[in-house]
Design brief:
The complex is a heterodimer. Helix content of chain A is 31%, strand content 23%. Chain A is of the alpha/beta class. Chain A has a single domain (3-98, 180-323), classed as 3-Layer(aba) Sandwich (Rossmann fold), CATH 3.40.50. Chain A has an 8-stranded mixed beta sheet with strand order 6-7-8-3-9-10-12-11, sandwiched between helices. A 4-stranded antiparallel beta sheet of chain A has the order 2-1-4-5. In chain A, helix 5 crosses helix 6, helix 6 crosses helix 8 and helix 8 packs parallel to helix 9. The two termini of chain A are 29 Å apart. Chain B has a domain at 99-267: Orthogonal Bundle (MetI-like fold). The termini of chain B are close together. By secondary structure, chain B is mainly alpha-helical. In chain B, helix 1 packs antiparallel against helix 12, helix 4 packs across helix 7 and helix 8 (206-213) runs antiparallel to helix 9. Chain B contains 12 helices and no strands. In chain B, 37% of the residues are buried. The chains are: A alpha/beta, B mainly alpha. The interface between A and B is medium-sized, with 31 and 23 residues.
């Protein structure tokens, strides 16, 4: 997607580090990740559970529970300002207004004690100069936009009167009601039925295009990424191990982990005989990780150096970056990045 | 909803009948009787007394007669206090206990909920530790210790309040404060701890995270988004607590010389004063059953997921 380079950068995450202090030690949930998001772009962040995808995005919104969590380093530049440094009041005018979020579990993400109308109207009133009546009208329009039937009546219902898919639609409507520039969707379909998943994803894509919203889509489903995202970051143990635009990534998966992930997706167009491919071993315990490639115990192509040093990030061209010793030119003298 | 209220109110009647029946028979199973004293009465006198109070009738007949009286609103004569009947003693002392109890539970609720919420919001700071220290003191230090300490400090040393007495006496309403504070202590502690834990749980819930992600102010999140859910456990605790507290406390009544109902709870049992025991039990049950009913109604008002048909 060449257009991305010409479009304005909206969000730039630089060397973000979010650590959690636990009794067992420091969990480096996010450990020095960087990426850029341009206007209108859809960025996918993939990785298995515990790889730090959600923590990355909660950090962008400064929603990390503290204690135990803490953003210990890095910058998150949104339209030039560092979100990590803005005062609380300014942060509130970004949250829900310029950057909004939808969460994994629609069953628990809406307040069960308040009507949908209350929850939607309060968001709009908070960020936009509108009367209550106008805000209600806008809420109804948003609900219609996300495909809630009989929105005029249903807006006065409570969340428990909606199904899971409908609640996620309400969440999307609420998140987009202030014309946010960035929508962070944290596994928006994980808790939903497969049939509903496709609908919700299509809805996000369609609305993002219509409203020119950039989307960060967090998922562990590579199929979802292939269909929706312009760019993909693959995360492993708190680090981005590979980053490329989607076509490039699927055509040339360079990190052994990415390669393994893509191979382990069941495909209908290729004859499968026998078992589905899987990556051996378990994800690493991220408490007190030694300075080595965290993937090396599971890697089929590991070398001596992988156990000793974290690999440098190598640019393979066209913005395709990979953190792996296989591509590092000087394997002996590289310092730990 | 109206249908539900009517059905619940009608349901109270059989509940009470069962309670009356059970307590009527249980008190009679206990050894001894109202006319047994240190010195055995002469046989003839005892016979006469028993005849007067119909103790010589079969138990079932006595039960039938008692039930009939209760249904007409007459709780019968006291077997120990000769001057008045049970109705008189209860309705003379119950209002005092209720006044004291309502004030005490209000203190518990106001201070319990506010310190519980403060402790939750400022979790693991000195505010939290201080509030919870007070809560633990309220729960664990018995009333007969708190009462005299308050009397010593605030009545004898500082002279702000009278040591004892009641609103009907010379000192008036100021006499309520010390006993009410004493009586509120343990409920304050429990409510503070309940509020803290329930608030902490609510503040960590997904929908609070959503509210934060929408950019809501933390005060709005606390009072508009978290309050309702966090109050549910406190409401269900309050029903029985309220019933317990407004029916009086022997200890507080003794320490502060409050003419309340609590005294009769204990005295009537010692005296085997059958009618007074059952009378007090009936009053307590009516209040308890009614409070539970109120709790259910408040619950449905707080939580839209609960509907009664």
């Amino acid at each position: 997607m060449e257009t991305n380079e010409t479009r304005k950068t909206l969000l730039e995450v630089k060397d973000l580090r979010t650590y959690f202090k636990t009794d067992a030690g420091v969990v480096k949930a996010v450990d020095g990740i960087s990426f850029k998001l341009s206007q209108g772009e859809t960025l996918g962040i993939v990785g298995e559970s515990g790889s730090g995808k959600s923590v990355t995005n909660l950090s962008i919104m400064r929603l990390i529970q503290s204690p135990p969590g803490k953003i210990v380093g890095g910058e998150i530049l949104f339209e030039g300002d560092d979100i990590l440094k803005v005062p609380e009041s300014e942060l509130r005018s970004i949250r829900g207004n310029k950057i909004s979020m939808i969460f994994q579990d629609p069953m628990t993400s809406l307040n069960p004690f308040l009507k949908i109308s209350t929850q939607m109207v309060e968001t709009i009133l908070l960020h936009q100069d509108m009367s209550k009546k106008e805000a209600l009208k806008k809420s109804i329009d948003m609900l219609k936009l996300v495909g809630i039937p009989a929105a005029e009546e249903r807006i006065h219902s409570y969340p428990h009167q909606f199904s899971g898919g409908m609640r996620q639609r309400v969440m999307i409507a609420m998140a987009l009601s202030c014309e946010a520039k960035i929508l962070i969707a944290d596994e928006p379909t994980t808790a939903l039925d497969v049939t509903i998943q496709a609908q919700i994803l299509e809805l996000i894509q369609e609305l993002a295009q219509k409203l020119d919203t950039a989307v960060i889509l967090i998922t562990h489903d590579l199929g979802v990424v292939a269909g929706l995202c312009d760019t993909v970051c693959v995360m492993y143990a708190g680090k981005i191990v590979e980053k490329a635009n989607t076509d490039e990534l699927y055509a040339r998966p360079s990190h052994p982990y990415t390669d393994g992930l893509i191979k382990s997706v069941p495909r209908l167009d290729k004859a499968q005989n026998g078992k589905l491919f899987s990556i051996e071993g378990q994800p690493p315990n991220v408490i007190d990780l030694p300075p080595c490639c965290p993937f090396h115990p599971r890697c089929s192509r590991k070398m001596e150096i992988c156990t000793k040093q974290y690999p440098p990030v190598v640019d393979l061209g066209k913005g395709h970056e990979v953190a792996c010793w296989l591509y590092a030119e000087n394997k002996e003298n590289s310092t730990d990045e | 909803m109206t249908k539900y209220v009517i059905r619940r109110l009608l349901g109270i009647i059989p509940t009470l009948l069962v309670i009356i029946t059970i307590s009527f028979f249980i008190v009679r199973v206990a050894p001894g009787g109202p006319f047994d004293g240190e010195r055995a009465l002469p046989e003839v006198i005892k016979k006469n007394i028993e005849a007067k109070y119909h103790f010589d009738d079969p138990l079932v007949v006595q039960y039938g007669r008692y039930m009939f009286d209760v249904l007409r609103g007459d709780l019968g004569p006291s077997y120990r206090y000769k001057d008045h009947d049970v109705n008189f003693y209860i309705f003379q002392s119950l209002p005092n206990s209720m006044i004291l109890g309502v004030i005490a539970i209000s203190i518990s609720i106001i201070f319990g909920i506010s310190s519980g919420m403060l402790a939750a919001v400022k979790q693991n700071t000195w505010v939290d530790y201080l509030g919870m220290a007070f809560a633990i003191i309220g729960i664990s230090v018995p009333l007969f210790v708190i009462g005299p300490i308050l009397q010593y400090i605030f009545a004898m040393r500082l002279g702000w309040f009278p040591t004892s007495g009641w609103i009907t006496g010379d000192n008036g309403w100021i006499t309520v404060i010390l006993p009410a504070v004493t009586l509120s202590a343990s409920n304050f502690g429990t409510i503070a701890r309940l509020t803290r834990s329930s608030m902490l749980e609510t503040l960590r819930s997904d929908y609070i995270r959503t509210a934060k992600a929408k950019g809501m102010r933390s005060s709005v999140i606390l009072f508009k988004h978290a309050m309702k859910g966090a109050m549910l456990p406190i409401v269900s605790y309050l029903g029985p607590a309220f019933a317990g507290i407004i029916t009086g406390s022997v200890v507080v009544e003794q320490v502060f010389r409050v003419p309340g109902l609590g005294k009769f709870f204990v005295q009537s049992s010692f005296n085997r004063d059958y009618t007074l025991i059952v009378g007090v039990v009936i009053v307590y049950s009516v209040i308890l059953v009614f409070m539970n009913f109120i709790v259910d109604i408040v619950y449905s008002l707080l939580d839209p997921r609960i509907t009664y048909k």
